[in-house]
């Protein structure tokens, strides 16, 4: 992109946002078909999966850095970069929250459960599509938007990402704290009891706060399953209907 630095940064941010949205569509569609129910995929509540945005951004910037590199090396580096990013993201999220948000340990040809061959092939296909089709198309459309509209859109999206990231991080931190408290209850031979009488067997607030992390990352059910007997059966049944019973039965 040509133009002032701040405009280039803004345009790349809009590209990141657009590809994060496309990633949300792909991820949510894939999981909805696989689980036979509507799934709002990703760490954030809004319709964005930043991993796809960062992946698209990394590929675009690497393509410019490696523009004069031999063709085979050029495509090799681009092809492995999203898988490397996914591995690093898994490690970083685990360090931040103390939780493994996704786990490919059951998939063939996986590396420490963080990446696997199946999804690496998926990333390679997306990388080729991004470089050859998506990037030129989106950058052209972004450049066609008026400069003031781009400023407004960038500001609105920035606030959306920040607020959503804070709220989603708090939800993940609550999940971790709840699991720790539940472990203490189990060690003492006690069971979970709602702090308030919710009546009509509606999910208590303590459990409602678990729904978003569990729906976004069903692998988190493995943190809950060892202590599931400490939770009343009617609550477990409701959680299974919301998150998907197969995740609790794995």
Describe the structure.
This protein is mainly alpha-helical and 250 residues long. The protein folds into 2 domains: 5-163, no CATH class; 166-249. The protein contains 9 helices and 2 strands; from the N terminus they run αααββαααααα. Strands 1-2 form a two-stranded antiparallel ribbon. It is globular, with a radius of gyration of 21 Å. The termini are far apart.
List the helices and strands and how they pair.
Blueprint (H helix, E strand, L loop, with lengths): L4 H31 L14 H16 L5 H27 L12 E2 L3 E2 H28 L2 H41 L17 H12 L4 H4 L8 H11 L1 H5 L1
Antiparallel strand pairs: 1-2
Helix pairs in contact: 1-2, 1-4, 1-5, 2-3, 2-4, 3-4, 5-6, 6-8
Write a concise synopsis of the structure shown.
With 250 residues, the chain is an all-alpha fold.
Identify the notable features of this structure and list them briefly.
250 residues, mainly alpha
Q: pLDDT under 50 segments (min length 5)?
A: none
Distance between the termini: 48 Å
Number of strands: 2
Compressed to H and E, one letter per element, the order equals: HHHEEHHHHHH
Structural class, by secondary structure, is mainly alpha
Proportion of residues in β-strands:
under 5%
Spatial shape? globular
């Amino acid at each position: 992109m040509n133009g002032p630095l701040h405009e280039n940064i803004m345009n790349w941010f809009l590209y990141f946002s657009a590809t994060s949205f496309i990633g949300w569509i792909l991820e949510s569609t894939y999981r909805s078909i696989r689980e036979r129910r509507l799934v709002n995929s990703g760490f954030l509540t809004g319709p964005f999966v930043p991993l796809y945005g960062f992946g698209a951004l990394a590929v675009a910037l690497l393509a410019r850095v490696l523009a004069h590199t031999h063709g085979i090396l050029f495509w090799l580096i681009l092809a492995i970069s999203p898988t490397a990013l996914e591995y690093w993201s898994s490690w970083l999220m685990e360090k931040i929250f103390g939780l493994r948000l996704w786990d490919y340990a059951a998939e063939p040809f996986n590396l420490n459960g963080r990446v696997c061959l199946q999804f690496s092939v998926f990333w390679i296909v997306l990388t080729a599509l991004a470089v050859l089709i998506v990037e030129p198309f989106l950058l052209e459309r972004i450049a066609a938007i008026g400069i003031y509209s781009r400023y407004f859109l960038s500001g609105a999206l920035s606030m959306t990402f920040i607020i959503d990231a804070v709220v989603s991080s708090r939800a993940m931190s609550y999940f971790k704290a709840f699991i720790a408290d539940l472990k203490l209850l189990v060690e003492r031979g006690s069971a979970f009891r709602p702090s308030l009488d919710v009546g009509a067997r509606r999910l208590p607030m303590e459990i409602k706060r678990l729904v978003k992390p569990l729906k976004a990352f069903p692998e988190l059910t493995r943190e809950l399953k060892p202590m599931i007997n400490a939770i009343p059966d009617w609550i477990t049944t409701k959680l299974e209907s919301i998150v998907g019973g197969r995740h609790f039965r794995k």
